[in-house]
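User: I'm new to structure prediction. If I give you an amino acid sequence, what do you actually give back? Let's try with this one:
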Amino acid sequence: MSKIISKPSLTIVGIILVAVVALFFNFPGIWDRGADNINDLAGFGMLPHFFKLPFKLGLDLQGGAHLVYSADLSSIDSANHNEAMEGVRDVVERRVNLFGVAEPIVQINKVGSDFRLIVELAGIQDVSQAIEMIGQTPYLEFKTIKPQEESEKIMSRLGELQSKLQQGEELTMDEKLEMLEDPYFESTQLNGSYLESAQLAFDQQTLQSQVDLQFNSEGSKIFEELTRENIGQPLAIYLDGIPVSIPVVQDVITGGRAQISGSFNVDEARQLAQRLNAGALPVPITLISQQTIGPSLGRVSLDKSLTAGILGFAVVLIFMILYYRLPGLMASLALLIYLVLLLAVFKIIPVTLTLAGMAGVILSLGMAVDANVLIFERFREEFKAGRSLGGSIDEGFRRAWPAIRDGNISTIITCIILFIFATGLVKGFALTLGIGVVLSMFSAIIVTKSFLRMLIRERLEKRKWMWR
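Assistant: Good question. You get back a string of structure tokens that encode the predicted 3D arrangement of the chain. For your 468 residues, that looks like this:
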């Protein structure tokens, strides 16, 4: 009769498979090189390249610009200062997203009675162009739906370009412009220059929130013609190249007045009216500070962080193996799996890695080691007292669990508080540390224990020096 695979063995196989997939996910070049070698030997493309998803690096690791703007609220009532600043942030955030900046940070900061807007643009090359875009007038336009054949053609082309990006190919400037093309709507004559006002209102029968629009005389004529030609069709409203509402034309509209109704609440309708009225920024802003971090400096920071992390991790592994011997070796393997899984989680969420975030990763690694130390010390006590190897492992984990649980939960609570109330670098530190602590508990309780139980053999148990 064939030997039945035990539950711990199945657990270990599952852990190793997940870790291997996570390793290729983090570093797809490892898989790609092996696949290319096999394909060359086979003579055809038998194995495809692995899916590629880059790590998101913050301003201090990737380089970019840190901009600070001062807002002039002298003409705004003090009760409306917060709302006005939220409007500024909303407009600026849409603009930098349109500029193609990955993970921009746009925050409101109050210094005494002065309001400031902090903008961080990681990986940006042309800082002057970004500054110009942030300060320019937002563009409001109305678009009609494209013919289905044209939309399908554009979508097909976008799919081809997306495939090129996934395969790591560089796009030309014309292809990058094609990526920005709207596949569903096309521009019309009607834009924000014809809009006089947008106001929050309520339907008199249903009391549903809506937004009332008023166009000037020329805009009224254009709007009337658009509605006449598109009855039963959507008429999309775009702000800074992003759709903010896509109402359906019910009838010909004359007089230059229109209503945008939908399933939004009062706050959403008020925000929409605020966006439509943003022919300019809600309040003027002035650039008072500009700090540019070059890609080379960001690369130096990244390289030093990685070097410090690798050296520290290597020292920890050597200590664990020398001091705890065979259990230390198993813990070291568990820590390697923990690190691979942690990096994969950062890619999937995704988490923007900064220097502070790297510090959170290293600290979470220390907590993972601390959990193993608690377990092994308890295990040693039980093994020296005469318990069997399996009994000592189970008792060591059982007695160490309360201390591991309480310490990690208190750390997670602290991370949650920091993430909610802190800003910028501290928030990034809290996020990476919190995720790392959760995974460290899994590493210590599941992975390390499974590896140790795999070693419960009578021959190994007799060699006391390997366990004490």
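You can read the tokens as a compact description of the fold. Here is one thing that stands out. The radius of gyration is 29 Å.
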